[in-house]
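Page 47, continued from p. 46.
Same chain as before, 195 aa.
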Amino acid sequence: MKAYKLPKLSVEDYLKQERESGIKYEYHNGEIFALAGGSVNHGLLCGNIYSEIRNGLKEKGRNCKPVTSELKLFIEASNSYVYPDAMVLCDELEESKEEKHALVNPILIVEVLSKSTSDYDRGDKFYMYRQIPSLQEYVMIEQDKATVEVYYKKTTSDLWKITRFIGLESVIELQSIDLKIKMADLYFDVIGLEA
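Result:
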C-alpha cells in the first residue's frame, strides 16, 4: 500500500479554509490542525482569567487590551497561526500582513491546560511563543487543580523566571502588566478541583 503525504497549504489556502468552513485551525508552516472543543472547566477558566485581567487593567487605567481565543496569533519565526486562550497587548495592536484578524505583538499569553494539550503547551508551543519579540510573560493554568505556572522575562533578557502558584489562598502576580489576581477569583465556579 502506498502512503500519500498531503500537500502543504499556503497561508492563503489556510485562511480561505477557515473562512469557508467556520472551523478554527492551527497552522504550522503548511500543515493545519483542527481545534477541539474545551471542557466546562476550560471554558470557565478562560472566562475568569479574561475577566480578571480586563477588570484589573481597567482599574489601573493601563493602555493594554486583553483578547480572547476568538483572535488568532501569527508567529512569524515559525510561520504559524495559533489561538491562545487569552492574550494581552499593550500600546498599538499590530496585525499580520496576511490576516487582519491575527495579532503579532502580545506582551502576555495565557493557556488553560488540558490532558490532551498539556505537553504541547509546555513544549513546542512555548518554544514558538518564545520567538515573539514582544512576549514577556506566559501563563499556564491547570484546570483540575488550583495551580498556575508563570514564566516571565524582562524585555532585555532571554532568561525566563518560573513561578508556581498553588492553592486557592495564593495570589498570582503578572509582572508584565503589574497585576495581581487571587487564585480564588481565577478558579471561581470551577468544579471538581483536586485537593
